Amino acid sequence: MKVGKFKLFLIFPAIYISGIFLFMSSLFNADYYDQTCLAPFVLIMLALHLFAMFCIFYTMYFVAKTIKTAEEQKELRFSDFVGEFFLIWFYPIGVWILQLRINAIHEMDLDEGIESHLVV
Fold it and tell me: For 39-67, what is each residue's pLDDT tens digit?
């Protein structure tokens, strides 16, 4: 599976949230702020926030697809792993349930050995 886009979408929300905290703290610590530049700022922040939300949903989608693909060992549609997606979305209970399956995948991988993953 291609992980380049996944890595970008995983890092963007963290950078976005850190940037928001830094910018908002400096904005509210300032003695004044210009009301005229507030409207474009709100539009930019709305666009960045919606993109960050998309990134979070994509990472949940990618992880759910990866877990199910590791189990099934075939190409899947979203309807095949929608259950895993919602289990990841509802984090505390979902990951608790998925952890058993992830452990089983890991054990199966250890039983096969590293030689089965080498490409000749």
Answer: 777 788 899 999 999 999 999 999 999 88
Name the residue range of residue 63's domain. Answer: 4-117
Cα separation, 37 vs 10, whole angstroms: 30
Q: What is the CB neighbour count within 10 angstroms for residue 12?
A: 18
Side-chain-facing half-sphere of 70: CA atoms under 13 Å: 16
Number of domains within the chain: 1
Query: How many Å apart are CA 76 and CA 99, to the nearest integer?
Result: 21
Q: Are 84 and 41 in contact (CB under 8 A)?
A: no
Question: How much of the chain exceeds pLDDT 70, in percent?
Answer: 80
**pTM higher than 0.85, yes or no?**
no
**pLDDT of amino acid 119:** 45
Q: Give me 57's structure tokens.
A: 């949903």
Asked if 60 contacts 88 with a C-beta cutoff of 8 angstroms, the reply is yes
End-to-end CA distance of the chain, in Å? 19
